Amino acid sequence: MIFRKTTEADLAAVVQIFEDARRGMHKAGIPQWTDGYPTEADIRFDIENGYSYVLCDNGRIVATAAVLLSGEPTYTVIRDGAWLTDSADDESTRYVAVHRVATAADVRGKGLASAILQNAADIGRDHEKISLRIDTHDKNLPMQRMLARNGLQYCGVITLQNGDLRNAYEMLLTE
């Protein structure tokens, strides 16, 4: 499998993966991404800023995620817990943030989200980050189980810019 930055040519495949993910979450009763998010404009923004990545299997795009090395503003405040890493330093430079993890419907449950996390962790290590952070909806139990299987620890709750709450997780990359 190859993990690489998303190109404009990949846009249709990535849009389809997100549409599949929204349908799957809706079917499972998970009220996440119910308003069409992420939109094509969100995906284009991620591509233009170098955040968007795809996981390819034999040339086919099977999964996608955003990998941010510049921090995540909504991670500044965490409640009902604490991040594993915290300091007076500019914390946004210390971790890699992963967002919008999604897999194609026909390959869901085959470990591709885990592969994305492993690749994102490698990118973080390559950029001397000390941890990986991610968040998910409290009803997204499949994602929470996958995060736990991959060594991420529940740290507390963050608030998105729209006011929605998300469970926050972190994994140290320096061990």
Account of the 3D structure:
The chain has a single domain (2-172), classed as Aminopeptidase. With 175 residues, it is α+β, with helices and mostly antiparallel strands. Helix content is 29%, strand content 28%. The chain contains 4 helices and 7 strands; from the N terminus they run βααβββαβαββ.
Task: Provide key terms for this protein.
single chain, 175 residues, alpha+beta, Aminopeptidase, 7-stranded mixed β-sheet, 7 strands, globular
* End-to-end separation: 25 Å
Question: How many domains is the backbone divided into?
Answer: 1
Helix/strand-derived category reads alpha+beta
Instruction: Give the name of the CATH architecture.
Output: 3-Layer(aba) Sandwich
Outline of the structure:
The protein has 175 residues and is an alpha+beta fold.
Write the layout of secondary structure elements.
Elements: E1 2-5, H1 11-27, H2 40-48, E2 52-57, E3 60-68, E4 95-103, H3 112-126, E5 131-136, H4 141-149, E6 153-159, E7 165-172
Parallel strand pairs: 4-5
Antiparallel strand pairs: 1-2, 2-3, 3-4, 5-7, 6-7
